[in-house]
Amino acid sequence: MKTFGYAAQSTTSPLAPFTFERRALRANDVAMDILYCGVCHSDLHTARNDWGWTTYPVVPGHEIVGRVTQVGPDVTRYKVGDHVAVGCMVDSCMHCDQCRKGEEQLCREGMTGTYSGVDRITKEPTHGGYSKHLVVREEFVLRVPDALDLSRVAPLLCAGITTYSPLRTWNVGPGSRVAVIGLGGLGHMAVKLAAGLGADVTVISRSPDKKADALSLGADHLLLSTDDKAMAGAASHFDLIIDTVPVKHDLNAYLPLLDVDGTLVIVGQVGPMAEYNTVPLLLGRRRVAGSPIGGIRETQEMLDFCAKKNILPECEMIRMDEINGAYDRMERSDVRYRFVIDMASLDTPKA
Prior knowledge:
alpha/beta; Rossmann fold; 17 strands; seven-stranded mixed beta sheet; 2 domains; Quinone Oxidoreductase, Chain A, domain 1
């Protein structure tokens, strides 16, 4: 299937129109028209090869909402016209211990990324959602509940599940005390989801200007990390801290805030961290952990939970041809809180 989208051709080139082939429909495949695609910081990192594993050309986008246009003969879960979604992965081995228990993101053979991955059968590069069409195996397609606003669902497929998964892993619920470091695309979803699960939620920020936003998103408190007295008063207070900061940073100020057996889970930074002191970990049996996205089953659970609780990200809609400006703004943290591309704005290339 010939399709088109926007691709980066090198580390320095802006995203530009790109025509390419989607694979022919396999027996267990779902084909869809892409309606909306979220813009994730991972898209920017991949386009610029910040992590060193990009294969060019690359069509980013792994927060995808679409409408089914065709299904293979073995597909049983979806039919033409269904509203569906695809997140950060499009395949895995499906037979290892992790895949069998619904943790495909932890596949022993490595999951196949929605973009800059390699198709497990054809060995061709995968391309993401900054495009008109997508073909995905049925097991990696998610159903979008009717109650959700289609135009705002897309960021749930990465920002949503990236923050929902640790909340579920560490059994957050009524009575849990959760802190969120950073109030960007990931952080604002962590606040909404933790509040939806019934936790007492605190946003940790360097700026008092974030208080109104934090409270409006569902937080109960703002803790100023620049206020030494307030930080000392919050010692041993939290069961879980979700750290969404996307750059190298220092954890030393935050570790004493954990209660005994508390966990600080990193979901933002991919790469080196500043050196930290182990004394608070040893003396309080505290831990530092990491968490990626969730599996397909958990992602569907998250979508259904968001529909039940009416939880959606705060989005700014953009046109496809505004993507390079959006990347520049995202680097300056000039977005509240996620960009979403209306894919109806992606024009057919001129012959």
